């Protein structure tokens, strides 16, 4: 038995998130019942170890987790509140205010204190229970989003659940959550997709000049249209707020560029607008927390030349291990038409000198970056 | 003596690019003379092995490479054409049309056939001769940008130089080059900076929800304002062309979002606009060539769970090597506050099944992605 999670837990909807949650909760000792609108999916979830199929004899759940698509979540939450009058009911939709409004609309007002929203901030490029993993939430933020009428103990229960599955609980109001994810997830998706859309125009020769910067900036543009229509539609107001600011700034940039039509001595004002864009961007990107929640500057990055043959990168990482330095991040730099790569190796800044010296002694070509 | 590069080469301006070029050319056997407007920088460049300091007794250069800041490049090219009446003169500024116009303005028209633009597509997060490396251009595109009056043999000389330093020569007209880099480099920089600028608004709790997508999308936002004001200003027309399209599409997105103010059943039209944005972005990002110039679809990505301890990633890569599969790309996924990581391993799509099976047999947790 889990000390922190009320049992049994009923999971409604066994896709990637519901499935992974079931696996994680079972690991922690909770009894998990699963149901999905598709009997085939339910059977597969049971087979994969997400939980047990439900029967008429099941004890009533103490906790219900609705992990259904966003557009049906509120109704299933309201149904669940009525179906199990003593259960706490939560949902894991990636937007929270619209679900809360739907629950308020559909549910008996007396049941509302037993509803609390949640958002485990995990996901993958793939979906479905087949991709579910019990460790999906490990080390990820788990947003607990109580509304004003939520029972206080519901917050404790969900924080306990988050801890039990290895997540980092973060308590936020639904509207604050929605604005936060608009900033860190939804607006970035739109910006990346907008930029990728502009790549439909240039010819192949132009795209042959692409470097790592373009690849990084557009990586998330390769995501599921169906999923993102749901997410953006359900968080339209918050996403618009962020994107309206971006458009205002883009207008400034276009105005500044418009005063520079090949003029070799552009006006001070236009140059300042561009410099401020880049400088403000510098400040913005430096606000993103680093890997283990620490500041990004705690790490130093070394660049190592790696022959692009099987085993060479492994040899580098083996030797870094032998030197006794832990890798905080690794990024490979692509090369066009050549069999050589650059490995950008991020390590604890305090170990940088040791690693540079040791790798150089071992014959690696290293440069600080 | 290099077979492909006329010698001596005079490099004017010894920053990152000029310095790296000198190192690379010397390796290939060319005699390299260096000069910089700063005597201290020249001395440092000589000390670092970029080339030899110039004297009054120097033989006239056969090739002059102007690697000065963009705003003074055209004038130095024009001066050089007059100073050495038999030399071929090139420049490595990252925009080409504005330099050509400046050279046309400042130079004797009879000298123009000896001028040809170039753009070695390499760079680092750091600048200055101290960061110079002879391998900076290895495997990178090297744009050779002749104008209509350039001598045909100048194109051959620069293609030979590009090959000599390990680059992949690409011949483009100056205007085509500028539009290409607006697409693959300058517009991505503006979009990344715009997005990063929007991160100045949210509070720390919101930024704590950031994942890898935001990190990738904003990585290049951490770049030098001074440098980028020069680049964007010098390529204002082409960058505006790309960004105007982006703004038009952003307006469509905002209009679509505006018709979805929390409405659980948004209109078909709005949903379609969002779905098309993401779908067009999918198509755009898939046009970016892969690592060795091949199409991205030739690779498959596996996701492997890796304990975040020294040696574990190395062990994974060693075993991938043992299985006999070459790694095409590797990306590590960060976790907040937890010692576990996901390695996204890209391999030849034809080897995907073998690798998945073999790694699973060896006890690794693998999921397709």
| Cα-to-Cα separation, first versus last residue of chain A | 50 Å
> For the report, how would you describe the main beta sheet of chain A?
8 strands, mixed
- Determine the most extensive contact between two protein chains: A-B, 146 and 149 residues
- The spatial strand order of the largest sheet of chain A comes to 3-2-1-4-5-6-7-8
Keywords (chains A, B): Amino-acid biosynthesis, Aromatic amino acid biosynthesis, NAD, Oxidoreductase, Tyrosine biosynthesis
Pathway (chains A, B): Amino-acid biosynthesis; L-tyrosine biosynthesis; (4-hydroxyphenyl)pyruvate from prephenate (NAD(+) route): step 1/1
Organism (chains A, B): Brachybacterium fresconis
EC number (chains A, B): 1.3.1.12
Q: Can you walk through the features of this model?
A:
2 copies of one chain form a homodimer. With about 375 residues, the first copy, chain A, is of the alpha/beta class. Chain A folds into 3 domains: about 160 residues, NAD(P)-binding Rossmann-like Domain (Rossmann fold, 3-Layer(aba) Sandwich); about 110 residues, 6-phosphogluconate dehydrogenase C-terminal fold, CATH 1.10.3660; about 70 residues, Alpha-Beta Plaits (2-Layer Sandwich), CATH 3.30.70. Chain A has 13 helices and 12 strands. An 8-stranded mixed β-sheet of chain A has the order 3-2-1-4-5-6-7-8, with helices on both faces. A 4-stranded antiparallel β-sheet of chain A has the order 10-11-9-12, with helices on one face. In chain A, α3 crosses α4 and α12 crosses α13. Chain A is globular and about 65 Å long. About 5% of the residues of chain A have low confidence.
């Amino acid at each position: 038995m889990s000390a922190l999670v009320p049992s049994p837990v009923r999971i409604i909807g066994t896709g990637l998130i519901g499935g992974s949650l079931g696996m994680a909760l079972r690991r922690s000792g909770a009894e998990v019942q699963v149901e999905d609108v598709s009997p085939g999916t339910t059977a597969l979830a049971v087979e994969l170890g997400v939980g047990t199929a439900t029967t008429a004899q099941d004890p009533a759940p103490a906790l219900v987790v609705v992990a259904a698509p966003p557009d049906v979540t509120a109704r299933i939450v309201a149904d669940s509140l009525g179906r199990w009058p003593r259960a706490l009911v939560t949902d894991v939709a990636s937007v929270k205010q619209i679900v809360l409004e739907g629950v308020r609309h559909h549910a008996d007002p007396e049941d509302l204190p037993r509803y609390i929203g949640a958002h485990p901030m995990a996901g993958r490029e793939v979906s479905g229970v087949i991709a579910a993993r019990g460790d999906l939430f490990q080390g990820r933020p788990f947003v607990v989003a109580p509304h004003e009428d939520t029972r206080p103990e519901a917050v404790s229960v969900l924080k306990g659940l988050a801890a039990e599955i290895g997540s980092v609980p973060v308590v936020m109001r639904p509207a604050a959550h929605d604005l936060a994810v608009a900033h860190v997830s939804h607006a970035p998706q739109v910006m990346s997709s907008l930029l990728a859309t502009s790549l439909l125009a240039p010819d192949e020769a132009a795209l042959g000049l692409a470097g790592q910067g373009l690849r990084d900036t557009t990586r998330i543009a390769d995501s599921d249209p169906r999923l993102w229509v749901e997410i953006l539609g359900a968080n339209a107001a918050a996403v618009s707020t962020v994107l309206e600011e971006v458009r205002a700034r883009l207008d400034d940039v276009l105005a500044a560029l418009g005063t520079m039509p090949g003029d070799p001595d552009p006006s001070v004002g236009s140059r300042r607008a561009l410099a401020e864009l880049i400088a403000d961007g510098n400040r913005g990107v430096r606000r993103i927390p680093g890997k283990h929640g620490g500041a990004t500057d705690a790490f130093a990055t070394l660049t190592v030349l790696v022959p692009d043959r099987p085993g060479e990168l492994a040899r580098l990482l083996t030797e870094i291990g032998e030197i006794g330095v832990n890798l905080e991040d690794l990024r490979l730099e692509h090369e066009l038409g050549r069999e050589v790569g650059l490995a950008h190796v991020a390590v604890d800044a305090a170990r940088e000198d040791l690693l540079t010296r040791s790798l150089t002694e071992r014959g690696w070509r290293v440069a600080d970056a």
